[in-house]
Each structure stands twice: as structure tokens, then as C-alpha cells.
Write a structure and sequence with these properties.
Number of strands of chain A: 12
Number of helices of chain B: 0
Number of helices of chain A: 0
Distance between the termini of chain B: 37 Å
Radius of gyration of chain A: 14 Å
Helix content of chain B: under 10%
Order of helices and strands of chain B: EEEEEEEEEEE
Strand content of chain A: over 45%
Largest sheet of chain B: 7 strands, mixed
Order of helices and strands of chain A: EEEEEEEEEEEE
Helix content of chain A: under 10%
Oligomer: heterodimer
Mean pLDDT of chain B: 93
Chain lengths: ~120, ~110
């Protein structure tokens, strides 16, 4: 069964400092990996994805993520955090199920708090 | 291109009632997935529909059901509501080619069961 782990319930970072939100995954075959952000009382907004190609993926709002196959990780990063980045971040993976169709599995989410 | 729309945005129901939520996917997207989000359980997959057929199902009781219409719009129904069904219900539409996949979420329907 595929799974996603976000080991930190909350990450605190000072404004202007670099941020990292961690994600590791387990899936059969080659993974499709995603990051989403959720603001209070809103749906999930797509940030970026890894399908194939370069291990460093650039996304919306200055975020990027690095795919590491050997460590089965897909950490989200940003060089300089903004207060407006404070939100709930979800990592997700898409793999294969027994029926041959692929579903998306989400992590439990990491709350990012950027401190002014 | 319009995004994923969900109606209604907010809903208050009484225990024992039933409810129907609606989702209109992005134009051209044929797959619709439903998720339940609660503070305690996080984001839980309910089911996925593709071309009017359910092709994936999560671990929810039979009180939760869904369907998809020929125009890709989807509805989910919850019968005999329980207090624990109070949650944010998210719909996502997706599009896949041989080399890519994209999934976008709607704003959600906040269901409160009293």
C-alpha cells in the first residue's frame, strides 16, 4: 500500500529565513509527487508536482521541491519565507492500486508558521 | 478556464437526515475524486469517478455514495447522517495524459451535522 509521511505537525520559521517542509513516501513503481497548500476554510491549492525529469521542481509562489529517489523523499523548500506563506501544507503521492488505476494518497499535513 | 466548483459551500443538517453535495470539474477533466477532511483524521479519500464509473473507493461505510454524470459533474450523497460526518468535503478534478497528471481542488463544502 502506498503511503506518505509528513513527520512534522508544525514548522516554525522566521520571516526571511529559508524553510523546509519534509515529506517521505512509499509507493510501487515510479511515483507522481505533489505539494498542495491550504489556507483556512479554503480548498487545496496546487503548488508543484514531480512526474519525471529534473529532480528539482519549481512551483508557485517561489516554492520548489527536490525529489530524492534513494531516500524516497520530496521535501518542499523556499529560500526566503514570507508571513503570507503561513498555511497548511500537504504532500501527496500517486501510485498504482490492485485494480490498475492510480489513486492519490495524502500526508497528514504540516502547519507552517512564519514568524514576523 | 473556470476552476472546480462545489455547491453548496455551507450546509447544516440534523442527525439522521441525508445530504447531496455537487461538484463541477474543470472543463475537459473526466475524473472527479471526493475527500473528507476533518481535524482528527486529516484528508481521507472517499471515491473517484471516471467517465461515469467508480474506479476507486476508500474505506467509508455504504452510507456514502456518489455518481458522475455524462457531463463529468459529480454528486456525493450521505444518508442517515451522523455527528461524525461533520467535515469539509473536497472535490478534485483531474486530467491525465501518458506522461503527466494534474489534479485541482474545489473550495469545499462545509457540512455541519447537529
Amino acid at each position: 500500500a502506498q503511503s506518505v509521511a509528513q513527520p512534522e505537525d508544525q514548522v516554525n520559521v522566521a520571516e526571511g529565513n529559508p524553510l523546509t517542509v519534509k515529506c517521505t513516501y512509499s509507493v510501487s513503481g515510479n511515483p507522481y509527487l505533489f505539494w498542495y497548500v491550504q489556507y483556512p476554510n479554503r480548498g487545496l491549492q496546487f503548488l508543484l508536482k514531480y512526474i519525471t525529469g529534473d529532480n528539482l521542481v519549481k512551483g508557485s509562489y517561489g516554492f520548489e521541491a527536490e525529489f530524492n529517489k534513494s531516500q524516497t523523499s520530496f521535501h518542499l523548500k523556499k529560500p526566503s519565507a514570507l508571513v503570507s506563506d503561513s498555511a497548511l501544507y500537504f504532500c501527496a503521492v500517486r501510485g498504482s492500486n490492485s485494480g490498475g488505476y492510480q489513486k492519490v494518497t495524502f500526508g497528514t499535513g504540516t502547519k507552517l508558521q512564519v514568524i514576523p | 478556464k473556470a476552476g472546480v466548483t462545489q455547491t453548496p459551500r455551507y450546509l447544516i443538517k440534523t442527525r439522521g437526515q441525508q445530504v447531496t453535495l455537487s461538484c463541477s470539474p474543470i472543463s475537459g477533466h473526466r475524473s472527479v475524486s471526493w475527500y473528507q477532511q476533518t481535524p482528527g483524521q486529516g484528508l481521507q479519500f472517499l471515491f473517484e469517478y471516471f467517465s461515469e464509473t467508480q474506479r476507486n473507493k476508500g474505506n467509508f461505510p455504504g452510507r456514502f455514495s456518489g455518481r458522475q454524470f455524462s457531463n463529468s459533474r459529480s454528486e456525493m450523497n450521505v444518508s442517515t447522517l451522523e455527528l461524525g460526518d461533520s467535515a469539509l468535503y473536497l472535490c478534485a478534478s483531474s486530467f491525465e495524459t501518458g506522461v503527466s497528471y494534474e489534479q485541482y481542488f474545489g473550495p469545499g463544502t462545509r457540512l455541519t451535522v447537529t
